[in-house]
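From the pipeline queue, job 12 of 40. The input is one protein chain; the requested action is below.

Action: predict structure.
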Amino acid sequence: QVQLVVSGGGLAQPGGSLRLSCAGAGFRFSLTTMGWYRQDSEKQRELVATIGSGGSTKYADSVKGRFTISRDNMKNIVYLQMNSLKSEDTAIYYCRAGEPYSQWGQGTQVTVSS
């Protein structure tokens, strides 16, 4: 059974940093593309970043240069380091295990406000 447990998030000031973690279990983590998505109350869930099994990464244009996705296949954890945070980064952030699992972890609230 695929399990994804998200930690991190919270409140940050504009320009600040936060790190999200997503621990996976019950599937072949090292062979799976992992992703971070976000959703605020007014928008559809959107892709933030993905990282392939080989470490290739993709980012939404809105976070390029500010966010970094990484993975530790020994610990089965995928991270999202968020720097230079902006108010528009405020959202619920979700971790996702890609195909063939297509599973979502629980969301974690990120609020960027002074």
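Job complete. The mean pLDDT is 96.
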